[in-house]
Specification:
Blueprint: E1 2-7, H1 14-25, E2 30-36, E3 41-46, H2 53-62, E4 90-94, E5 102-106
Antiparallel strand pairs: 1-3, 2-3, 4-5
């Protein structure tokens, strides 16, 4: 058995760890799987005679785990830019009626995807009722 360690940027929660383990355990020649959403790392023991590292990477790529998350970053600049450059701005509001509640609003423009990827938690489909 050999060991392969991969950075998995889209694995950011425990539900992703479960899905990554499911994807990898379905491949031939896979032994122990260590997956950490805290460190976004997967370490896999595999049999090189049964599977190549490229096939392991391809399975994770197909599941959507090897691509970087497109998360907007605040610029630190003021909300108004005199040169017309678009800035990232978070608006904070407090209302007297809400007392100790503070709300945040942030405009996030889609960059290739409408939502952040959440592999393993797809759209719930209605089961066919024909039996």
């Amino acid at each position: 058995m050999e060991t392969l360690t991969l950075n998995v940027p889209a694995m950011y929660g425990d539900h992703h760890v479960i899905e990554v383990r499911r994807v990898l355990s379905g491949l031939p020649g896979i032994g122990e799987i260590y997956a950490s959403s805290a460190f976004q790392i997967v370490q896999v023991d595999y049999d090189p005679e049964q599977i190549k590292p490229e096939a392991i990477k391809a399975a994770l790529e197909e599941a959507g785990y090897l691509q970087e998350l497109d998360v907007p970053v605040e610029t630190g600049a003021v909300a108004y830019s005199p040169d017309g450059q678009e800035t990232f701005f978070r608006h904070t509001t407090a209302f007297e009626q809400a007392r100790h509640v503070v709300s945040f609003a942030q405009e996030v423009r889609p960059a290739g995807r409408v939502l952040w990827p959440c592999p393993g938690l797809g759209v719930i489909r209605k089961a066919d009722e024909e039996e």
